[in-house]
## 1
Amino acid sequence: MVKSAILIKGVVFAQLLLTLTGLRAAEITTFYQDSYPKYIQTDGGFGGLCMDLIAAVETKIGSKVVNKGVPDNAFRPLKRIQVDIEQGNIDVFFCLAKNSKREKLFDYISTPLYEVNHVVAVRSGEHVDIQNLDDIRDLTSATILTNFGTATERFLNSQIGLTVDATADSLELNLRKLLLGRGEFVYFHDIGLYSTIRQKFPKEELDVLPAKFRSYYHYLVVSKEAPNGLRETLEKAIRELNQDGTLATIIKKYKTIEESPDGS
């Protein structure tokens, strides 16, 4: 009886070891989203916030995270990516907001990757006392510029008493409209605004106000069809990357107008 128990424990341990070893060696599949600055295609490959997070996770767990969209199609629309996660066509996706519908379709790693804040850009020195949307409502004929077809447009249109212009489909266009006086604010998430101003308008007189109008988090999500043990491995990895300050270090360079020492 004792020998049998020892044998069974040995078999279970060996199976567990094989599972963990296989998990570390196996490639983890994902898709990239065409969303600046989360995923940025360059001549040398890909960069951006989520790519930095992927690199940190790869180092932590010893497995490669592979884009299934290369070389046929570098990027994939977010709606299609969500279907791919649900159906198990990919294992994970980096940098997704949480809602009740999505939570039923795939698993969220409990530790957030970073916080997202809705903020506004203004011409330097203007509207420095703005603290909330009521302050903007109190202004006379103040137009808020934002990107067409985005969550920020939907949020602003759900508010009463705001004048919203969402005819442009990019931050670059909206910031140019702001500089030309065709609006008083550009409303978007802080990561996008800071990065676009830093990269596209380094010499222009633009500021991002400190007021936060809406906040939520982006997470790493895992398909319910992903290999056994993957979610637990990623839970541990993201928790440790948060605890040792790696996540904060990565996000910090995407939330400033100032160029970082590495030129990003």
Note: The first strand starts at residue 28 and ends at 30.
## 2
Amino acid sequence: MVLSFRHYRSETLTHSHDDFHQIIISHHGVLDLDVDGKGGEVRGRQIAFVPAGAKHAYRAQGMNRFLVIDLDARLAANAGIEQLWHQAGGGAYLSVARDIRFGDLENLLAVKPAFSQAGSDLSYPGARDFPLMTGVNANAAVASWEHARDLSGQYHMLPFLNDLLRAAHTGTKAGNVRYDPLQEQAGGIPLRLTRAMEWAAARLNETVSIAGMARIAALSESALFAAFERYVGCSPMRWLAAVRLDFGRDLLADSKNTETIGEIARQVGFQDQAAFSRAFSRRFGRSPAQYRKQCQLGDK
């Protein structure tokens, strides 16, 4: 299982992947998506489940950020995730019952629970969260869990996906599922907060202050903090730090980018390469140099 926050570009790209499903969850912005000829959007409480082998095209306009989960197809089948998806309607676009905030996802990704050995008695941590998993596929599930742990250490995302899909449902329009504007009022980010976020994201190589963001949002500093905690799930500076690192990762992954790591560090707002490398390693578990090398080798 591979998890990452991604920023999508405005040009339309198309591809498919045969060995893993892809779940896309919006933190901010709108992703236009076409999955095997069925058009729709990922935004707010509407997520996408792109099944393995499905040809899909995608693009996004303006500032955007999405959590993308590449979920091994074998793991999804053995852990009951695929069955929950089918019970939710089996569509590419699903509406979920609750808000998904950036800060909550960041906290979830930061968890590193202990992993104990398991047997067919389903005694391993989190087993109670998967009632669809029976003794028939228990051993296979354990093997898949071990594989997921070896790949990323993020097997604990499975209970999150289980809860997410359990209360999900397919949109009413099977051919072209569009976002309900009322969801923006129920769980989206208010326009004035979006304005401040876009302003800050356009100035990553500058000093961005709370006062400046509050001014753009037409809020007091305390009201800005409260709005971020409510709608984003973290403080403004924690959000900005994550955006800086994600943009830096995008630059490192770009094979056409010939800038040095030090130049990239300064471009995303770090004073020196050492500070950028420390923060990058803490967030992604590998140094900028290691990540760039892996991208060059096609092993992201």
Note: Residues 112-153, 172-187 have pLDDT under 50 and may be disordered.
## 3
Amino acid sequence: MDQGGAAVSEGRVSVVIPLYNHADYIRQAVRSVLEQGALVQELIVIDDGSKDSSASIMRELAAGDDRIRFLTQENSGAHATINRGLEMAEAEFVTVLNSDDYYAPGRFAALIRALDLDAGADIAGSGIGFVDGDGQQIENPWLNDAIDNYKRKRNLGLALMDYNFLMTTSNFFMRRSLLDRIGNFSPLRYTHDMEFALRCAARRVRLCFLDRPLMMYRFHGANTISEDHAKVRVEWALSAAVYIHLAQMGSHPVPDDQVARCHEVLDRHGLLRAARYAVDELRTRGADRVTDTLITDTGFIDGMKALV
């Protein structure tokens, strides 16, 4: 039973942790999954070529719980590691936890209950708490503003491209069947979470959002998102372009006024020219998402960099 008294059953969730050089944090991440209780069918942890003691710690943890499946691989990047884990997942629901983050108690019960009550929704997320590298809680007013922006807009695509209020793949809790509709994560280093969520929005996937901190995001010096803001902006514009491109396809394209609202958001962030350039490229290539071929095309990427 969850705290609201509704039965949510057992063995309904597969969790994927892409692990890379987080020996200091992986124990807490794993513990936060297992403490979700009998709802966890399996925890798939894939070490992506860590150079610290992450793998040896995981071998120890895996020996203590038969729900843990631990694998190692040569370094392939977060998106590829997540995709490999999701392909292995067998439960009704799948979720991703980055190896430096952790879940709050009761997260799975709350999100499963929300999705059980709304059969038309396929993905859920929550508010987020924040800690520093030493585990001390910190404030992040930006997220409060981002969530307020979503509540005002009540438009998932617009809200995500304006302020990515879901923030991280660690906040994605979804029916496994959604992957058959949307596909896997694209080969982006910084915004594979946003691009996936925007593809969901363009395909009119409904989100259940619980505005309370059911996961903890850790800020520390090695966060990927802090590496290169110019590259983040290129991927941000490209992710927005995927949404605009997809939203205008099919038998029920979004109205012109909504496209205009997308352009207003992107113009405010100085990304409109780059997004338009990317939309044209997607149409020329007949692509409906970011591909390896696109992201490794140096001519295209240089063109994007010049526009952001």
Note: The longest helix spans residues 229-247.
## 4
Amino acid sequence: MWKTLRAGKVWTGKIINKRKDETLYNQDTSITPVKDSKGEITHFIAINRDATQLTMVQDRMAVSEKLASTGLLAAGIAHEINNPLSVIMGLSQILAEEKGIPESLRTDLNTITDQARRAGSITQGLLRFSRGQQPAKSQVSIGSILKQISPLVAYDFKRRGIALTVLSPNDDRKLLADPDQIQQVLLNLLINAKHAVESSPKKKVSVSVAYTKTEAVLSVHDTGCGMEPGVMKNIFDPFFTTKPVGQGTGLGLAISYSIAVDHGGTLEVDSEPGKGSEFRLILPLLVES
């Protein structure tokens, strides 16, 4: 920067600045050197612009483009894999039903069938992801969505010693949304939160809603292990997962992000290692005439 300015040229670039509340933000800056009659630089004029919103839009576009290109690849792979999987599953089931075979062999054949079935479920997930099923939108209250979520996971959370709090709104504000797809996103986030807190001394997960003038912000917060910045950067990428091999496909958050975008919203995350994570599903509120 200073090399450019001392040469009497205009410098433009991005810098990280700090607000009064100590939060950091991206800033577009243009600095112009001003010279006197002798051609000496006397001072500089800087024009700054908060680039937070622009950076967010660019990040969202990058993720959307990545999801679209990956979806095309995923569809081709899924179609090619499905046929041999069906053969493997069918033949292993037939062999396992044969009389007189050793039990150890029957156990192995059943394992082959189970794993082939799991691989089949992954390919089905790939196909659903690539097809991008359009939401069947209707007017739905945010409160009704949240009331339906709790019973679906309450027993499993209680069995694992996880305290679940769902704070339903007192009002009846609505979304124009596919309730099944929104429920799918929230369930994905709750399942991830469950896994995040399992090894935490404080096993707490909460769901809440807040509003801006035009949007509803549905938040899922956990007191789990949190994430490093490098993990957060890739968290919505297809097939990216921090779970052990065999325990996740890495498609849940990618599909959730696609659903949010299809509803005119987005999915954001804040996390800090050792302090937990918060996912925010941001959706436009229904404007009733």
Note: Residues 55-131 form a domain with the Helix Hairpins fold (CATH 1.10.287).
